[in-house]
């Protein structure tokens, strides 16, 4: 099961997708769901991961890339998360990038059961869409 909310265009809450295999919120959606405007990104992602009980969280960070959590974070466990920098640094029109990311990441996760591969595929697809949309 895969979930994504749309706080930008309607009042959605990513926590409506508790227990899902993959959720892909952006920072605004996470802060809205947790009512947290003060925490930095990694603690914020950890709170959402724990509260949502998801298996994999791909936290979309726009021009900064993504942060993926793949298992419950233990103190100083650097393997529970990883960051992938944005592959397209000059995105003119990011509309649709999140849809591309979730589509390919969910397919990659389903086929490989590997959050790293899923995150890379999602990032590549999002970067391609940013490039294609900028020419249309």
Description:
By secondary structure, the chain is an alpha/beta fold. The chain has helices spanning 27-34, 41-52, 97-112, 115-135; strands at 2-3, 22-23, 56-60, 66-69, 81-84. The chain has a five-stranded mixed β-sheet with strand order 1-2-3-4-5, with helices on both faces.
For the largest beta-sheet, the strand count, sense and barrel status come to: 5 strands, mixed
> What class would the helix/strand composition place it in?
alpha/beta
Number of H/I helices = 4
Distance between the terminal alpha carbons, to the nearest Å? 32 Å
Query: What is the mean predicted local confidence, pLDDT?
Result: 85
**Number of strand elements:** 5
The H/E string reads EEHHEEEHH
- Binned, the helix content reads 40-55%
Spatial sequence of strands, sheet with the most strands: 1-2-3-4-5
Q: Report Rg.
A: 14 Å
Shape category: globular
Low-confidence stretches: none
Considering the chains and any ligands shown, give keywords for the structure:
globular, 42% helix, alpha/beta, five-stranded mixed sheet
Give a brief rundown of this model.
This protein is α/β, with parallel strands linked by helices and 136 residues long. 42% of the residues lie in helices and 12% in strands. Strands 1-2-3-4-5 form a five-stranded mixed β-sheet, with helices on both faces.
What's the structural blueprint in terms of helices and strands?
Blueprint: E1 2-3, E2 22-23, H1 27-34, H2 41-52, E3 56-60, E4 66-69, E5 81-84, H3 97-112, H4 115-135
Parallel strand pairs: 1-2, 2-3
Antiparallel strand pairs: 3-4, 4-5
């Amino acid at each position: 099961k895969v979930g994504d909310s749309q706080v930008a265009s309607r009042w959605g809450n990513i926590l409506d997708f508790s227990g899902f295999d993959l959720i892909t919120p952006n920072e605004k959606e996470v802060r809205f769901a947790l009512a947290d405007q003060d925490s930095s990104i990694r603690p914020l992602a950890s709170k959402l991961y724990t509260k949502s009980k998801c298996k994999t969280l791909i936290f979309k960070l726009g021009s900064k890339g993504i942060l993926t959590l793949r298992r419950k974070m233990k103190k100083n466990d650097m393997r529970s998360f990883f960051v992938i920098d944005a592959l397209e640094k000059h995105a003119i029109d990011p509309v649709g990038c999140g849809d591309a990311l979730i589509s390919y990441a969910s397919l990659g996760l389903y086929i490989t059961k590997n959050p790293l591969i899923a995150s890379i595929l999602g990032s590549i697809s999002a970067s391609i869409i940013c490039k294609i949309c900028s020419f249309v």
